[in-house]
Amino acid sequence: MDLTIFIVKSIIILAVFGISLLIATYSTYVERKVAAFMQDRIGPDRAGPWGLLQPIADAGKMFFKEDFIPAQASKWLFILGPALAMLTALMSSAVIPFGDTIRFDNYEIPVQGIEINIGVLYIFGVVSLGVYGVMVGGWASNNKFSLLGAIRAASQNISYEVALGLSIIAILMMSGSLSVRAIVEQQAEAGFLGWNVFTQPLGFIIFLTCSFAECNRTPFDLPECETELVGGYHTEYSSMKLGFYLFAEYINMFVSSAFISSLYFGGYHYPFMEQISNALTNSLGSVTGHNVATAIGTVVFFGKIFFFIFFFMWVRWTVPRFRYDQLMNLGWKILIPLSVLNIIVSASGLLFNGMKYASWLIVIVATVLAVMSNSRAPKGQVSPQRS
Amino acid sequence: MQLTNRSKQVSNKEMTLAEKMYLPAITKGLGITLKHFFLKKATKPYPDVKTYLGPVFRGHHVLKRDEQGRERCTACGLCAVACPAEAISMVAAERTKGQETLYREEKYAAVYEINMLRCIFCGLCEEACPKQAIYLRHDRFVPVFSDRDEVIYGKDKLVEKSDDRYVRTNPNVQVTPTEPSLSRSVS
């Protein structure tokens, strides 16, 4: 590989690394602010203007806490746990296409860590490795609550990974490729109404739900539910090891937001991208114009990511945590059959006349059934419960 | 017992399909939380913004002076008798010639001490005083102390400063008069 390409690639990789750390840092602040606003509070506002230095204060606190390792814990695994969680969280952002291409001299370099033709598989693999961090940490703590939390995390991830994988098969059938960039480009070609969220509404809902579960976010944060399991898998952790676990969660949130945006919301594509890009290349020349267009696309992509990060928090402060049996019922009895049905319907749509919008059929039928069942339900017969 | 009229009867009836899908309910919930996101916040950033406690709040004690700046207290001891916490103690002294501009009555309090650890801020001293000499101001708290030596407040802290007179019915005071400058008399 050429040296210049190597240098540009390294810069892009370092930038992605730095940005994901920065976003994860400020997600903690935003999470607290969003939580406060939704509960009619003000939230942290003492450190710096509007509390903007709060994450730094938090990190400082984490570093100065006692780094405690329980006497009966398996020491090396105890240290390995958070390191593994952090490592896998950071690895997964490598294949996300953050923008189109950067052009200079006669090179054309995609704004992406690495472009591989099995990007989706890569992300799935790395994300499922992520649960090992939780498992190892919870198990090595030698604590019943931690172990329970770790087991919950493992079974939850296994259950929801199935539905997660099945829900995007319909997309893979349409794009014919496992590369995330190819999926984004296919949506960009199809235009705004060709975004996969419009062709695959059901798949999107299933994927979104499952990614909440994969990130261990509320309503699926059973591995760390403090009401039942003290702190879940990180009960025994303190200092920056705990910080790593929390940090890994926020990086995971960022990566899944990026993944959702690129799979279902057209990635760096936005309406009238072609026209704007053409106008820019005409007025600024094919090099500068192209790079400016790429930058706009990247900004749009980050806008989508921020929206989804906000959505994660929004749902967290809206929906209460599921019970464990409800979680398993939802995963195995509802999401998996629905995603199989989704595959069949969209596949037959594609097979018969290339209809991409076949999956709307399920949505329409479900809506009609729901409305019918609602109107047929007995009204005003609420018998009071005696306690 | 009904506390509010917002209570809802719960029931164990079979859920309809629309309810089993959760999505309509979740969307409704998201709407509610988003509405609260933009609502006015209930919290006040306390040390910066202080709530108006009302004209009858009982805070820091003050020994009043009269219109000519003379101390009103005559050391009768009725406040000490009325005090349920026995926080007040005083030593009386007789006014000598030439002190007429300092003390209103012929007898005055040479020492007047309130133990702020004992005081319960009931305001009975204020009611007992026949000379309208002691008041609990509505605009100032007794500050936190970190040392037992600071606990007993003598005349240096209690007697009203001539340039910082306390008026409870100051018409200018309507908002957050915990700021001392707002409660000064107009004169």
Keywords for this entry:
heterodimer; A: 387 residues; mainly alpha; two-stranded antiparallel sheet; 15 helices; globular; B: 187 residues; alpha+beta; Alpha-Beta Plaits; three-stranded antiparallel sheet; 5 strands; elongated
Structural overview:
The complex is a heterodimer of chains A (387) and B (187). Helices cover 68% and strands 2% of the residues of chain A. With 387 residues, chain A is an all-alpha fold. Chain A has one domain. Chain A has a two-stranded antiparallel ribbon. In chain A, helix 1 packs across helix 11 and helix 2 crosses helix 11. Chain B has a domain of 88 residues: Alpha-Beta Plaits, CATH 3.30.70. Chain B has a 3-stranded antiparallel sheet. Chains A and B meet through helix 1 and helix 15 of A and helix 1 and helix 2 of B.
Low-confidence runs of chain B = 175-187
Please bin the fraction of helical residues of chain A: 55-70%
Strand fraction of chain A:
under 5%
Biggest interface between protein chains, with counts per chain? A-B, 28 and 26 residues
**Model regions low in confidence, pLDDT < 50 over at least 5 residues of chain A:** none
Largest sheet of chain A: 2 strands, antiparallel
Number of separate domains of chain A: 1
Q: What coarse outline of chain B follows from CA principal-axis ratios?
A: elongated
How are the strands ordered across the major sheet of chain B?
2-3-5
Report the portion of residues of chain B in β strands: 5-15%
Average predicted local confidence, pLDDT of chain A: 84
Give the number of helices of chain A: 15
Quaternary state reads: heterodimer
Assign the CATH topology of the domain at 62-134 and 146-160 in chain B. Alpha-Beta Plaits
**What global shape of chain A is seen?**
globular
Mean pLDDT of chain B: 81
How far apart, in Å, are the first and last alpha carbons of chain B?
56 Å
